[in-house]
Design brief:
The complex is a heterodimer of chains A (554) and B (338).
Chain A (H helix, E strand, L loop, with lengths): L1 H35 L8 H8 L1 H34 E2 L3 H13 L2 H12 L4 H10 L12 H37 L4 H12 L1 H16 L3 H6 L7 H11 L3 H32 L8 E2 L3 H30 E2 L2 E2 L2 H4 L16 H29 L3 H15 L2 H11 L1 E2 L2 E2 L6 H24 L2 H9 L4 H30 L2 H6 L7 H10 L3 H29 L7
Parallel strand pairs in A: 1-2
Antiparallel strand pairs in A: 3-4, 5-6
Helix pairs in contact in A: 1-12, 1-15, 1-17, 3-7, 3-9, 3-13, 4-7, 4-13, 4-23, 5-7, 5-13, 5-23, 7-8, 7-9, 9-12, 11-12, 12-16, 13-23, 15-16, 15-18, 15-20, 16-18, 18-20, 19-20, 20-23, 22-23
Chain B lengths: L1 E10 L2 E11 L4 E5 L6 H9 L6 E6 L2 E2 L10 E4 L11 H11 L4 H14 L15 H13 L5 E5 L7 H18 L2 E6 L2 H7 L2 E6 L2 E6 L1 H6 L4 H6 L5 E3 L4 H4 L5 H4 L5 E4 L4 E3 L7 E13 L4 E6 L5 E6 L9 E7 L3 E4 L2
Parallel strand pairs in B: 3-8, 3-9, 6-7, 7-8
Antiparallel strand pairs in B: 1-2, 1-4, 4-5, 9-10, 11-12, 12-18, 13-17, 14-15, 14-17, 15-16
The chains are: A mainly alpha (554), B alpha+beta (338).
Chain lengths: 554, 338
């Protein structure tokens, strides 16, 4: 009887594996096939061209370069703030910490537009400076510069780094430092010998994550940089869609996949180390007392507020103001399909598309993610394999995923290309790692003795799952579901590939509107961005509410 | 009646049980006593049905338990960390096993009330388990494992995480509650004082084997091996080829046991001689150490050739270095297996 039960569970485990196999691995293999055998026979000329053309080598180098700069800038800004957050208590700290997470659930396209409205040539900052100092030129010249991209990446990743580093620092506490002080360490030695070495795993972990995110960044670079600043991601999209050079796009994707695979493996390894060391967990913060300490807190508050809130305010203001006056016409016009637009539907209709897809993706990701989490948590070889396997979609760029879909799933029996189902499916893949990372820590935190206690009290496997596991996972399941929902709402790269005429989602509509000529379309794009931002902000509030209980690894 | 025969178990290459055989008569409390890592917890987990890989048999009332899963055995297990369900209240925890039996709501409520009364927690019924003290958690865990009327109750170091004072008091209370429930019980501990207080019978375990099984008093009076004597905290153990045994202490080893590896001179049989006595062996020694323990002193004396003996004295009417006459009762000289 027990053997039959085990078979049953193994069958269940097959579901997420099959999903991943057919809808993720198969498209990726198709890319591999297309890149190595563009015409059916082995042909490496694509790679030779790729690696011998200065332009593409430049693309590769630039991708690494901008990701390195973004990572360095993020860590440089986030580490001092993380220290302040770990060590000092101050009014509004939890609110600020919550706000710092906001960008993480904000879609890239919203972030990109927000920065354009703040720092662009006709952005809020330039307007303000010109009015205040009566200048007849724009003092902030960041439009289409690398600096703009880096700033947006810092905005995007600041929260991740802040959370990981400050959480790690907080567990170390004062006592280690006090011990060092008693042994004769001054402030400089404290930083050099204690504080920085202590957070090395956290810096590595956060740095890798930021690097991965910046490496695969698509929306931000496409909108703020354009083809002049093409990274691998943008190049894949450009080659596949604009040039229709599929073999070259496939070769670029392969380079991308291999690079990410390596980084992801290192990341999962550091994650394990982090978990081992995060043991103590005693409250370690105190009030800021000296002038320097207060100054540090003030700097931190100003930085977060300036960096994180200003662009969002600029976006909202720009969407509401026309010719210096409050005007909601931008919003009212969303119900109409403007003439001459590339869109097949009125912008507002895409909201229903997005909501429908997000709901489907959420349910699918939740079910698959829960099963996958159990699989990973099981001891044994399967689990060691499953952990990096299910993280792969996070490491694979959305653009690669979308590209794989259109070349692999375009013929029977899996002709999904024309079906709207392809959108929620791609979103499910992107959301799956988020669900797993939310559920897994809670699952690991359930002591085995609880399940054993339930069994000795007469509960069978299913009974234990329903009465012990699920109630204890409740919060983290909600967090995972909300992540899945907001990720789906904001997903841009894959949707841009697979969304068809009537089934376009909000981010795709925004992108098309930006591409349309004329101020009216641009204003519509701003208004749509604000709508999307509000939907995601609701998700964010739910996550933050529950995160107070310390759910999740993100 | 629980019968365990030739039970062996290994975690990978590490052997945790080597052919353990034990019997537990109906209504008796058996203590498994031993150092950490001796296999006592593994034994409990196998009996509970939580470890499936083992050789040998576990039988209850004649029925082999091997193919019966943990939740159908009707054996209660109280975990070392209590394993209270954090998402349920005190009453919810106690009711958990009853709900699995699909009893009626009033019936469950009634039994939960009665059990909480029995462990003295009736006022905390609706409390969150996270808000309980260590002693209270222990009582909830006990009530929870007793609730479904188990045929056998197992307790894994139930007082392990509590402080010493609470332990003494709760050990007695625990025995009372188990006895009143009339259930057979296996109680795992590494503390011999706790085992004396709770057990009807004690099985001392070492390196995956049971080395002695006896009633508490018998175990204390006549430990069978060097390990058991040491583990019970008994001193005065001499190797049987120690010449001081015959020369100084006047003990003829040959008459005791031929295969004895060591000789224990039981501290309970040593006293300061009031006058001359023929009942035991009398000798002279110097007081070298005395530790005040409240109700008594732990003293150490040195006879000729530095043969040292320790025992307890109610009072200490002398000072260090003084010479005194001591008496060793003949039945306090116990041969031990190596």
């Amino acid at each position: 009887m027990r053997a039959r039960l085990r078979d049953f569970w193994l069958l269940i485990y097959l579901i997420p594996l099959a999903f991943l196999g057919v809808l993720f691995v198969y498209p990726l293999l198709s890319i591999l096939d297309l890149s190595l055998r563009p015409a059916g026979a082995l042909d490496l000329s694509g790679f030779v061209r790729l690696l011998s053309t200065d332009y593409y080598v430049g693309t590769l180098l630039f991708t690494v370069y901008q990701a390195t700069l973004s990572t360095a800038a993020t860590l440089l800004l986030a580490t001092p703030c993380a220290f302040v957050f770990a060590r000092y208590r101050f009014r509004g700290k939890s609110l600020l910490m919550s706000l710092a997470t906001l960008p993480f659930v904000l879609p890239t396209i919203v972030v990109a537009l927000a920065f354009a409205t703040l720092l662009g040539k006709k952005g809020l900052l330039n307007d303000l400076a010109q009015t205040l100092f009566s200048l007849d030129y724009a003092p902030v010249q960041l439009e289409r510069t690398l600096a703009m991209i880096i700033i947006a990446h810092v905005f995007y990743n600041f929260a991740v780094a802040l959370r990981i580093i400050s959480g790690y620092w907080a567990t170390a506490g004062f006592s280690v430092e006090e011990a060092a002080r008693c042994l004769g360490a001054d402030e400089g030695a404290l930083w050099r010998d204690i504080r920085l070495p202590l957070i090395r795993p956290a810096l590595l972990s956060a740095g890798l994550l930021v690097f991965i995110f910046s490496f695969t960044s698509f929306g931000v670079i496409l909108i703020l940089g354009g083809i002049r600043f093409a990274t691998l991601e943008v190049q894949i999209y450009y080659q596949a869609v604009n040039m229709f050079n599929l073999p070259l796009a496939a070769a670029l994707s392969l380079v991308q996949i291999l690079g990410m695979l390596a980084m992801m493996m290192i990341y999962t390894a550091t994650q394990k180390k982090m978990q081992l060391q995060l043991a103590s967990g005693a409250a370690t913060s105190r009030r800021a007392l000296t002038g320097t300490e207060r100054l540090a807190v003030g700097f931190c508050v100003a930085l977060i507020a300036g960096l994180l809130i200003a662009p969002l305010i600029a976006l909202v203001l720009r969407s509401l103001l026309a010719a210096g006056q409050l005007d909601v016409a931008n919003y009212l016009s969303l119900t109409e399909k403007s003439r001459g637009s590339l869109l097949f539907i009125a912008p507002l209709e895409s909201i229903f598309n997005s909501l429908r897809f997000a709901l489907l993706a959420m349910i699918a990701a939740l079910i698959l993610g829960l099963i996958a989490s159990y699989m990973i948590e099981r001891p044994g070889r399967l689990a060691r394999l499953a952990d990096p396997l299910f993280m792969l979609p996070l490491a694979t760029s959305a653009v690669t995923l979308g590209f794989g879909f259109i070349i692999a799933l375009d013929e029977p029996p899996l002709n999904l290309r024309a079906s709207w189902l392809i959108i929620p499916i791609s979103h499910t893949l992107v959301a799956l790692p988020f669900v797993i990372r939310s559920v897994l820590p809670s699952l690991r935190a359930i002591p085995p003795s609880l399940r054993e206690a339930a069994r000795t009290l007469g509960a069978g496997s299913l009974d234990t799952l329903l009465t012990i596991d699920l109630p204890l996972l409740g919060r983290s399941l909600v967090v995972g579901a909300t992540f899945a929902f907001t990720v789906s709402m904001g997903e841009f790269g894959a949707s841009l590939f697979v969304a068809q005429r009537e089934s376009v989602t909000i981010p795709v509509v925004i992108y098309r509107l930006i591409g349309d000529p004329g101020q009216a379309s641009y204003r519509q794009a701003l208004a749509m961005s604000v709508v999307l931002m509000l939907v995601c902000a609701c998700g964010f509030i739910i996550i933050e509410r529950l995160r107070i209980a310390g759910v999740g690894e993100f | 009646m629980l019968q365990i025969a030739r039970l062996s178990h290994a975690y990978g290459d590490i052997v945790s049980l080597r052919g353990v055989s034990l019997e537990l008569p109906e209504g008796e409390i058996l203590c498994l006593l031993g150092p950490s890592g001796c296999g006592k917890t593994t034994l409990l987990r196998i009996i509970a049905g939580l470890e499936a890989e083992y050789s040998g048999t576990v039988a209850f009332n004649g029925a082999d338990m091997r193919s019966i899963p943990a939740h159908r055995r009707g054996f209660g297990l109280m975990f070392q960390d209590f394993a209270l369900f954090p998402h349920l209240s005190v009453a919810g925890n106690v009711a958990y096993g009853l709900r699995r039996q699909r009893l009626k709501r009033d019936e469950i409520d009634g039994r939960v009330q009665a059990l909480l009364r029995r462990v003295g927690l009736e006022v905390l019924e609706a409390r969150d388990v996270a808000a309980l003290s260590g002693g209270q958690k222990q009582r909830v865990a006990l009530a929870r494992s007793l609730a479904p009327n188990p045929r056998l109750l197992m307790l894994d170091e139930p007082l392990g995480s509590l402080d010493a004072q609470l332990r003494d008091q709760l050990a007695l209370e625990l025995r009372g509650i188990i006895k009143r429930a009339g259930v057979s019980a296996i109680y795992v501990t590494h503390d011999h004082r706790e085992a004396y207080a709770v057990a009807d019978r004690i099985a001392v375990m070492n390196l995956g084997s049971v080395c002695q099984r006896d009633a508490p008093r018998q175990l204390y009076r006549a430990p069978a091996s060097v390990f058991v004597a040491r583990f019970l905290g008994l001193s005065n153990i001499f190797a049987s080829d120690d010449s001081r045994l015959a020369d100084v202490l006047g003990i003829n080893v040959a008459t005791l046991a031929t295969r004895a590896g060591a000789i224990l001179i039981h501290p309970a049989g040593i006293s300061v001689a009031a006058g001359s006595s023929d009942l035991g062996i009398a000798l002279e020694a110097a007081l070298v150490d005395a530790v005040f323990r409240g109700a008594h002193y732990d003293v150490t004396v040195a006879a000729a050739r530095d043969a040292r003996l320790s025992f307890a004295m109610e009072d200490l009417p002398m000072k260090l270095g003084d010479r005194l006459r001591i008496n060793i009762r003949r039945d306090a000289i116990i041969p031990l297996d190596e």
